[in-house]
């Protein structure tokens, strides 16, 4: 079973119970009606990215659906919480790419998203034989990756939020949802 399609989604939920805050985040992301199974971080060869709306139409309520998901939660008022999934796609469509999960406290969408994207691109670069200095910042490495011609696309899907002011649970999630 190799997924043919993937879509990206994200959500945030707030509730007095942690589990229900997670459920609300899944609802916001539009994936609450599926049985989600987390898998590791390989982006399948020849997998096509589709819109969330198109991907949702390809799935049935109650279906077991594989995903790469990042989630994080806090009960601390005003504490920044984030979850991100990064993606790096190789130029050769018959080669696999990488997805990465990153969750953090105190990071904005931009910071957490760049980190997740960097993780995915760095993992792919090592399989493609691209030499890079891991001490350089991501923007410099991104240019090396693109100039190599071996990595054609990288992106991220990220959700961050401030913890609920009244101390309710705040849960964020981001996911790559596979469709077979």
Short characterization:
With 180 residues, the protein is of the alpha+beta class. It has helices spanning 18-29, 52-57, 109-128, 138-148, and strands at residues 5-15, 35-38, 42-43, 48-49, 64-74, 80-90, 97-105, 151-162, 169-179. The protein has a single domain, classed as Pyruvoyl-Dependent Histidine Decarboxylase, subunit B (Pyruvoyl-Dependent Histidine Decarboxylase, Chain B).
Structural description of this entry:
The chain is of the alpha+beta class. It has a single domain (5-179), classed as Pyruvoyl-Dependent Histidine Decarboxylase, subunit B (Pyruvoyl-Dependent Histidine Decarboxylase, Chain B). Helix content is 27%, strand content 41%. The chain is flat, with a radius of gyration of 17 Å. The model has no long low-confidence stretch (mean pLDDT 94).
- Strand neighbour order, sheet with most strands: 2-5-9-1-4
Mean pLDDT: 94
Distance between the termini: 7 Å
Number of strands: 9
Topology record:
Elements: E1 5-15, H1 18-29, E2 35-38, E3 42-43, E4 48-49, H2 52-57, E5 64-74, E6 80-90, E7 97-105, H3 109-128, H4 138-148, E8 151-162, E9 169-179
Parallel strand pairs: 1-4, 2-5
Antiparallel strand pairs: 1-9, 3-7, 5-9, 6-7, 6-8
Helix pairs in contact: 3-4
Question: What descriptive keywords fit this protein?
Answer:
180 residues; Pyruvoyl-Dependent Histidine Decarboxylase, Chain B; 5-stranded mixed beta sheet; 4-stranded antiparallel beta sheet; 9 strands
